[in-house]
Amino acid sequence: MVMALHLPWDRILRLDVPLILLGMFLLRRAAYKAYRLFVYPYFASPLRNLPGPKNHHFLIGHTLNQFRSGHPNQPFVSWMQKWPTAPLIRYFDVGNADAVLVTSLEAHREILHAKVYSFQKPPFFVRLIADIVGFGIGFAEGDEHKRQRRALAALFSTKNLEGFIPMLQSKASRLSDLFEDVIKHDGGVVDIVSLYSKITLDIMGQFALGRELDELAAAQTSDTSPASSMSFHACYHELFEPDGVGQLLIAINSVVPIRWLPLDANRRFKQAHKMLRSQIQAVIDDRIRALDPGKVENAGGKDHISPRENNDLLTWMVARKYYTDDTGPRGRSEQQILTFLAAGHQTTADALTWATQMLIEHPASARRLHAEVTDLLLRVRQDGGQNLGYRDIESLCYLHNFTRETLRVHCPGINVARAASHDVTIQGVLLPKGTTVLMQPAVVQRNPTIWGPDCDEFRPDRWDALEGGETGAMMDPWAFAAFSHGPRMCIGRAFSMLEFKIVLIELVARFRFDFAEGDGRRAGEIKLVNPSPMLRPDGGLRVRVRHLDGGNSGERSD
Question: Which residues fall in the annotated binding site?
Fold first, then answer.
């Protein structure tokens, strides 16, 4: 009997100690994971009493619902419509992790202003984007973000913005030339998504580098591989707009590192990343030599350039010694350039896409825009001017309303995601460290408790009423969330709006847009890329463009 009691222990003691420790570790991890999956969310989480949907999967939360929705703003807008007065709506992320959707303006103010540095970009988002663009102003946190924003803020002053107007007008004129070619050779039918994307990327190339992107060739490097012939545009699109396999790998890599796998998509990604950086670095070195020959070895080859002659981000940074830090003369400038290219290119392209769609769906708005723009152009030319100045552009009230209403109803950016960097209380609710906080412009801008029962309608005139002295939540500036708010709001907001308006001025003065034959879809019928960080038509958007003769903007009516 005594032997029987001791035999099990003898066998246990004869096992490898490391094996015992490994087993105990795995058992503990399994118990913890089971607790986080099945116990904590329902019985211990401080968010368990918040309103929110219940139809989630215990492993992937509501992620599958997002994929199935067919719209990147869903199911979040539907949740807001179900609980319109709740400041926070709880949902589940991957691994049954707590996440909250922010719906009230008061909660937005706390997160984006009062307690802005209690939140940071979520780890998955950093892995998704920062590996490509680096840690420029978009991904800097805390004091480093404050320092970078102070350093760059003056670049976007009204005085500086005026210096960009000739470049923007030149690019808008180039876009008109492309539309002329389409009318002449393709019957006026064109995919505006790809056309706007190219023009806005070229604009951001001029803004960020002061160079035409078509001029940037990989031949500036010593790389002789076949991939070294990739143009800047090809490299950029491989990184930021890959094919389906590339998009899947980007998503997986944000969770599990897989760039080391010997896949064609990975090889293309790494080669494009290398070539894009090498092309940008070559421009940076040229600019440093031109502005400060002592900063780079073997200086020379370029005449001195005055910062006033090159009104671009790179010249601004180099002339002010912004690049002098531990990352060397290239590092920080390169990161900021990539950040602005990524942030400022597709957003404006998508805004122009939806603005064109609104011109088609609302011909009365198109006629009013045309009348306002042509009247101003005539007055400026009668006064001896050739091009519109900053004040002229800002005087176009209906254009201002039209652009804001487009961004309200069809905001290009889908999400502003944050994660609590420590336990923090928002609207009386404790958000534990690591909680994902999601803010969607559409959730605010299409909320009937904020914008009224007609919030889903495209009505530019609503802005006149709002600015005419009406009271209530609708007058709250936080109700317009297209550029976010607070210390981390889009630093390029004024430039983006100026670009948006200048391109529209060029287009409404010269062209009329219609549905392409067999493609007469209204905005609500257009298939969208989903999931996506942008509100973008899937497969492009074909429209018909025609010359606008005289003052006649068309025979259609609303």
Answer: 490
